[in-house]
UniProtKB/TrEMBL annotation:
Record protein name field: Type I restriction enzyme, R subunit
Signal peptide range in chain numbering: none
GO biological processes: DNA modification
Gene Ontology cellular component terms for the protein in this record: cytosol
Span list, region Disordered: 572-603
InterPro entries referenced in this protein's UniProt entry, alphabetically: EcoEI_R_C_dom, Helicase/UvrB_N, Helicase_ATP-bd, Helicase_C-like, Helicase_Restrict-Modif_Enz, HSDR_N, P-loop_NTPase
NCBIfam families: restrict_EcoAI
Native source species: Streptosporangium subroseum
Database matches in CDD domains: DEXHc_RE_I_III_res (cd18032), SF2_C_EcoAI-like (cd18799)
Domain Helicase C-terminal per the UniProt entry, residue ranges: 404-575
Source taxon at top rank: Bacteria
Annotated ranges, domain Helicase ATP-binding: 165-335
Composition bias, Acidic residues: 584-595
GO molecular function list: ATP binding; DNA binding; hydrolase activity
Length: 804
């Protein structure tokens, strides 16, 4: 009926898209196999051109009022950023005009042209270049690794079209902020494809320069996207030679800034061999990096080609005194955050294990006159976490962290084969961590030819890049653990990574977001739907920073006179707060090594200053180092931002949301059916009973007692204590059954002690040794039939759980 009415209004079949996909549904990773939450699908999306929705339709049955679909229709329209939505039951049509703020009952749907004209007015699009570019079809020639087409998601279409609108309206600096793992490269490709097809430049395809500061950020989009879509039109610049006649160029800033060969007398940088107006479009990937700094050599390149439209892509814009992404590119035309991606089900949710080492908590102080491994006197002072691996290296600290990580990986379902990145302080620290992990996993290292654990840093050169190529492949099992410093913190697509290990202090919010982003990609083909962050250095405190999931803010200090009148607002210097350690790994490693005895002739203060700025450290062995404690955290969805909350506290909150008193919870838990309903609801909220038992360090307690303790701090009983109580206080109930039936109930209690309440239901009859005693129907006959068996088990459950 709805399709008939739409066709009567002039909508063609290919413009009416039923079951219009919007989101995939949040990943619910607790309790066994991951599941999807509610996905968003509009009953119909109305597209003026393919990939260009301008309205949605929510359809209800004729027995339900059309008005009941209004809120759903509004939600879909807001997500897609279309100004029109319709709610109908086939008999009545309600039009929701979000631009005008009106809800109106209408007799018939507007025609495509009529609605498109209203759409353009709402969006401020005139009949010009911007409209033509937006209406240019999306490219559908690219395929995923499994040969399925790369279809842009709703937010990618929005990012592309908003960029094209801005370009069509004459804006020459455009910023897109998209969380790591959300497909910035596909967005960049579609922008270039639509500009090429839409005849942005009259008479020829646009000349494009794609800029980045790492080879992997250049080669991956070039080879996996642009070469597939544009063929021989694509060329990578470098080595001082530029092949002209192409129209899509890829380059490193460093390569473009290189001068010509001295033998030719040509001292021009490579980029200066092009005319200032040679390029029409420059795409700046990871634009928060060098190009954002006003005084950087790399900025010279962008300033040289200042007549080109420049589009900046980043997940982490920065706003510092001398490096401001917004000051250069302007406010983002579109933003899509990590929180958005997780909520929509396009990014993997995460858990955090905060693991404290005793010397990190309390610090370390040498004994009087103590020297290090090489005989260097150790200045007598307290050494704390920022000193470790820079000033002072404690061998056992690295070994204890490696042992903890090994134990954690070995307990996983893959038995140590979950791909993991370990971020260390520098290459030297990464080397020692690599050796420690290798030696703790000799069996796997031997099995995989010493490629189970590898180091990938700037010092590893081509060998490290070869390991990186294998590590990021989705169809490669090894390497399993990649130990690095900064080299893998940004721009590397590694969808199968399940663990991010942070073993060095992080002072920069930008860097922290980039590191977390290494795990956010989903890969359903290998059942990767979530990831863990193992944090040894309390870096994940940044999750609780209000700026974590939003853009950085400028902060101002207001100065007032004695009467309280505003004199001036002075921008505060956030550089020290946001930047942290700013030198690159390569710069740090290139600092002077120093002698084995760097402290000769120096005071303690001079020695510490020297050790802090030079690569030589103090090396200490034989210290008492151990894991102080570890706590699991998850994201608090109630706060509206990625605030971390301790797992036990989170679980208690979800239990209380059931709106049951402790007594009511016990009563429902006692019955198999209602217990299954409760478990299903808790799993949907992210509660895993096994994880809760681990965090409460009580594997013998009944799951009910874990929930009661988490929610109301009630004392827990072991399953053995509950079973003993039933046998002592409810002997009359057990003895009321014939011996052959009582035998089954006694067996069920034994299984309950061993496995928990899963055994308090009829399928227990299929377990050994009961299944050897007869078929389920034969065993149920001992109680008089199946109904009597279920009643007996429910009563047994009531007696098990009637303890306070």
């Amino acid at each position: 009926m709805v399709e008939r009415d739409l066709k009567l209004a002039g909508w063609k079949r290919d413009q009416i898209c039923d079951e219009y996909p919007i989101t995939d549904g949040r990943i619910l990773a607790a309790g066994g196999r991951p599941r999807r939450g509610l996905h968003l699908r509009a009953d119909y999306g109305l597209e003026y051109r393919p990939g260009m929705p301008i309205a949605v339709v929510e359809v209800k049955r004729t027995s339900i009022k059309a008005d009941d679909g209004i809120e759903q229709a509004k939600r879909y329209a807001k997500k897609l950023e279309v100004p029109f939505a319709y709610a109908t039951n086939g008999l009545k049509i309600q039009e929701i005009d979000l631009d005008a703020g009106m809800i109106t009952e209408i007799d018939a749907y507007p025609s495509p042209d009529e609605l498109w004209a209203r759409y353009r007015r709402a969006k401020g699009l005139d009949e010009g270049l911007a409209t033509d570019l937006v209406l240019t079809p999306f490219d559908q020639s690219l395929t995923n690794w499994d040969n399925t087409p790369k279809v842009p998601r709703y937010y990618q279409r929005l990012a592309v079209n908003k960029t094209l609108e801005a370009i069509g309206q004459g804006k020459d600096r455009v910023l897109l902020v998209l969380a790591t793992g959300t497909g910035k490269t596909l967005v960049a490709y579609q922008i270039v494809k639509k500009l090429s097809r839409g005849k942005w430049i009259e008479g020829r395809p646009p000349k494009v320069l794609y800029l980045a500061d790492r080879n992997v950020l250049v080669d991956q989009p070039k080879d996996e996207y642009f070469v597939q879509g544009f063929g021989e039109a694509v060329h990578k610049l470098g080595g001082g030679v530029a092949k002209l006649g192409r129209h899509i160029y890829f380059a490193l800033y460093q390569s473009l800034d290189q001068q010509g060969k001295a033998a030719t007398g040509d001292q021009k940088a490579l980029f200066e061999k092009f005319g200032k107006d040679y390029f029409d479009l420059i795409i700046v990937d990871e634009c928060h990096r060098g190009s954002a700094k006003e005084d950087s050599n790399w900025r010279r390149i962008l300033d040289y080609f200042d007549s080109a439209v420049q589009v900046g892509l980043t997940a982490t814009p920065i706003r510092e005194r001398d490096a401001d992404t917004y000051r250069y590119f302007g406010d983002p035309v579109y933003e899509y955050s990590l929180k958005d991606g997780i909520e929509d089900g396009f990014l993997a949710p995460y858990r955090v294990r905060r693991t404290n080492i005793n010397v990190d908590v309390y610090g370390w102080r040498p004994e009087s006159g103590q020297v290090d491994r090489y005989g260097t006197p150790i200045p007598d002072r307290d050494y704390t976490q920022p000193d470790f691996e820079r000033v002072l290296e404690i061998k056992e600290r690295t070994e204890v962290a490696a042992q903890y990580l090994t134990d954690l990986l070995r307990k996983s379902e893959s038995k140590g084969m979950d791909k993991t990145i370990v971020f260390c302080v520098d290459s030297d620290h990464a080397s020692r961590m690599r050796i420690a992990l290798n030696n703790l996993n000799q069996d796997l290292s031997r099995q995989y030819g010493n490629d189970y654990v590898v180091r990938i840093t700037s010092k590893d050169g081509e060998a490290g890049l070869a390991h990186l190529d294998e590590f990021k492949k989705v169809d490669s099992d090894t390497p399993v653990i990649a130990v690095t410093s900064r080299l893998l913190s940004t721009g590397v697509d590694m969808p199968t990574v399940r663990n991010i290990v942070i073993f060095r202090p992080i002072g920069s919010m930008t860097e922290f977001k980039q590191i977390v982003g290494r795990g956010t990609r989903l890969f359903k083909e290998k059942n990767k739907f979530s990831f863990d962050i193992i944090d040894f250095v309390y870096a994940t405190r940044m999750f609780n920073d209000p700026t974590f999931d939003g853009p950085p803010v400028r902060r101002y200090e207001d100065r007032v006179d004695d009467d309280g009148h505003l004199i001036e607002s002075v921008e505060e210097d956030l550089t020290s707060e946001q930047s942290g350690v700013t030198e690159s790994e390569a710069e740090y490693e290139q600092q002077e090594e120093g002698a084995l005895d760097p402290g000769a002739g120096m005071s303690d203060d001079e020695l510490i200053s020297t050790l802090t700025t030079r690569a030589r450290r103090l090396y200490v062995d034989g210290q008492d180092v151990f894991i102080w404690n570890d706590t699991l955290y998850v994201m608090d969805t109630d706060s509206g931002r990625p605030k971390m909350i301790e797992y036990r506290v989170f679980a208690g909150g979800q239990v209380r949301k059931l709106n049951l008193s402790p007594t009511e919870l016990r009563g429902q838990w006692a019955r198999a059916k209602s217990r299954a309903d409760i478990l299903r609801e808790l799993r949907g909220q992210g509660i895993d009973i096994k994880v809760l038992a681990e965090q409460m360090d009580d594997h013998d307690a009944d799951p009910l007692d874990l929930l009661l303790s988490a929610a109301w701090e009630l004392p827990a009983m072991t399953r053995r204590e509950r079973a003993r109580r039933v046998r002592r206080e409810h002997r009359k109930f057990l003895d009321s059954f014939a011996a052959d039936a009582r035998e089954i109930l006694e067996f069920v209690l034994d299984k309950y002690i061993e496995h928990g309440p899963v055994e308090l239901r009829p399928n227990v009859l299929t377990l050994p040794p009961l299944r050897e005693m007869g078929s389920p129907s034969e065993l149920a006959a001992r109680f008089g039939g199946g109904d009597e068996l279920r009643e007996a088990l429910d009563r047994l459950g009531l007696y098990v759980y009637d303890a306070a």
